[in-house]
Amino acid sequence: MPSSQLSPPDQAAALNPAPGGAARPRLGAVLLLAVGLVVATLLAAVHVTQGSASVGIVELLGLLTGGSDDQTAAVLVASRMPRLAAGVLVGVALGVAGLVMQSVSRNVLASPDTLAVNAGSYLAVVAVAAFGIALPVAGGGVVAFIGGLAAAGLVLALSAGGGRGGGTVRLVLAGSAIALALSALTTMLLLLYPERTEGLYAWGNGSLAQTGMAPMLQLGPVVLVAVAALFLFARQFDLIALGDDTATVLGVQVRRTRLIGILIAVLLSAAAVTVAGPIGFVGLAAPAIVRLIAVRVPGMQKHVLLIPAAALMGVIVVLGADVLLRLAFGGQTAVEVPTGVVTTIFGAVFLIALALRARASSESGTGFVIGAGLSPRGRGLVIAASAVLLVVLAFVSLLLGDAKLLGGDVLNWVTGQAGPLVEFVMNTRAPRVAAAILAGAALALAGTVVQAVSRNPLAEPAILGVTGGAGVGAVFVITFWPFATFLGVTTGGLLGAALAALIVFGLALRGGLASTRLILIGLGVSAAAAAITSMLIIATDPYNAAKALTWMNGSTYGRTFPQLIPLAIVILASVPLLASARRELDLLAFDDDTPRVLGVRLGSARLGLLAVSVALTATAVAAVGVIGFVGLVAPHAARALVGSRHALVLPLAALLGALLVCVADTLGRTIIAPAQLPAGLLTAVVGAPYFVWLLWRSRRTA
Amino acid sequence: MIRPTIALTAAAASVLLLAGCGTTENAGEASGEAAIVVTDDRGESIELSAPAEKIVALEWNTAENLVALGVMPAGVADVEGYTDWVKSEPLDEGVTDVGDRGEPSVDAIAGLAPDLVLTTTDLSESVIAQIEEFAPVLVVRGADASNPIGQMELNLERIATVTGHEAEGEEVLAGFHEKLAEGTAALEEAGLAAAPFMMSDAWPNGGQVSIRPFAEGALLTAVTEELGLENVWTGEGDADYGLGSTDVEGLTTVGDVEFLYIANGDIDPYQNELAGNAVWQSLPFVQSGKVHRLPDGVWMFGGPSSMNDYIDAVVATLAA
């Protein structure tokens, strides 16, 4: 296995390995830093003129000449400057943290986001608030640090197996899965303790606004000291980039340096989270941009220069996003839209660009077939048992909920003899159970197909952004055509899903679908889709929590049978199609040549099968909102039980997917009744650890 | 892998066996002729054979109106929240909580077997349709920024009609108008006629403060204007509740006004988070000491009872 196919460019363009060769920084590099400083300063200057008060450039210039009043000064000192300071602090902290994480892991995709540091810090802060422990800002910083460190440790441990430095895709996947699970837990806490965690929801998207300088004055020194400390290790980071062995030969204590680097990086990200909430993808994009520039400038690749450059670039990205937000929405409306939403969209685009530059590798496609542990007879039994279990659980799920029913009630309902109460409860509960089962089955089928077609066991509609695209389409229709019928919403979802699939598969087609590129592009699209959905909801319907919950977290609330018709039709149409294509799926999942030799038309077979999975995904999203992990977990579990033949995998995956969502939905309706938790949160809490376990197991074979 | 599956199946099957024997109810009942007909804000006409007695209210303003008319609802969404925010018409002990206002539990509502369910157009249509399977639903518009007081009165009147409490409804409305007149007179006497004001609430967001100004068209803004004061906040609000959004900087557009706000308990960003903020301190109304926190529990989107409390609070605060 290649040690790391997305290594920072500075590894490829090797440094001068001579021990005494810490050449003085070249003039060009220093000039470039100066240009960066000028750009950052200009952005800062624009930044202070923007805001909801009518304090613009004229008034601010008036301050210098004494022509403005006290209020202008107050706005500058107590509102604009704290916001600017927060932007600078967050930009420096995240930019440098990302750079160091990338350097010590020799992986250009390592960052506070992909290592789940932000999600871990945020969860820790929310958990402390939820359990009623009030902390001063500095105390909050400690909590954020511990949470972030725990998350990063988990991700690094999980992804460390696949060769030194860890495989890129494993790292990003473990990070994304853990981040998803942690944010699902965070959202649950926000829902369970709304009064104690009030305000933390909007903060969860990352916003720079501040009411005073206190947080920056407390955490600014921490950031300064941390960045300064990194300069002491600059040369060791340079050497680690050459490879562990070379670095060891040159006298670097690789493990120790790596640990120190990660600790400082986590500290920096925690400081940023404490000040402004999780601001997405800055830690990924800023250092990556710096590295792209650095390869073209002689002498620039030394960490002595890379660290200040990443800090400057972080500031430019954060302030740039904030300035752009206010230019687009105007000073008043921009108050509502968190800056982190914009940086996430920026960062997602950048993640895709990085993925496109990556060389295709053979990393994916191996190590994930756990093997069939069962005899042929056992396989049949498992499928039959799952079917029975599904029927039983569907029945139990009809009984459970806010009002508990008894079996006889359901029998009466089925035979039309139930009294009004049971009739009513069943009439509302049955569509929800049906929605959960159908959507679970559809997402699992779509996942199975996508994994086979892309020959990538980590692919699934949610990770590939197709589910997110469907969500954007559906929310778009609801937002701009409030009276749209359910068919309209489904159509919107379909268009969104198709567009996302087109982008992801279109971009990944170069170099073959079965590459790590597909996953990375997909993750980028899915992050962007989540950010756009959240922006649409915050900007147009900020007080409608129920709407946000359904579309961001998946919910069967309020489903009726007629709304399930599109989904049912698509499933009914897909089943015979997929059944007849089971051989093609086996062949496509095997390799490129065998299907060709056997006369399968690769292009059209892939396209047709993908279209089926897009339709399944879109109708499922229209029915229950965005639910992740089902399409990934169900096919894996199915393959682990019955092997890789799609004749068996397809039905079992569908059954397991239906089971997972059905259980999640039932728990969500029952645990805190009469209030409810969205099904998608519970599938993330259940699905993400399973996924992590898969990654852990696959460590040995990778 | 097979063993847990079997164990689970067996466990589930035994649950079913235990549960499978009974039912939770007896037979249904018949209905008579329509005696009351009301058109709601969807344009649907609600027909009732008799005044509704067992009622579930899914939005707090409808619950408040019921209590004001002398009808204790059987179920209310988020009873705890109601008790915190709506002090004008307290609920009895026995009122059932039917879940969150955003996603009330249809099970819980059905479980109460209500004669009528009251909700607002904020609830999704498919949920309203589900509830209609088992009970008539009167859907009112929670608020209308083009006619805030009129909408509030209309909502009360319709609830009075469907519960057969028209006389009490007229009384409540008459009381509200009397209260308005008294308040206007008291404020005029205190020399506050045509005094400029701004109404808002706010909450802390991490290290930040989100401010929600009540724009032109918000119920509280309209009532305060009826009291003879003049609203100075010119920002836009939403089409229903007339709510805007801004930050501390945004308040610099407001001059020396009576600055009214509602907070809840310890959560008071104006006193806590903003106290030391230079922008806040630079605001003319802060410097002249015209920042007034109104008492807790005056529901800002409520009915005449809440508005009566509000008028009392404004008069007591400003004219004292």
Automatic annotation (TrEMBL), chain A:
SUPFAM superfamilies linked to this entry: ABC transporter involved in vitamin B12 uptake, BtuC
Keyword Calcium: no
One of the GO BP terms on file: siderophore-iron import into cell
Membrane topology field: Multi-pass membrane protein
Localization annotation: Cell membrane
Keyword Ion transport attached: no
A GO term for molecular function: transmembrane transporter activity
InterPro entries, per the entry: ABC_BtuC-like, ABC_transptr_permease_BtuC
Xref: PANTHER family: FE(3+) DICITRATE TRANSPORT SYSTEM PERMEASE PROTEIN FECD-RELATED, FERRIC ENTEROBACTIN TRANSPORT SYSTEM PERMEASE PROTEIN
Protein name: ABC transporter permease
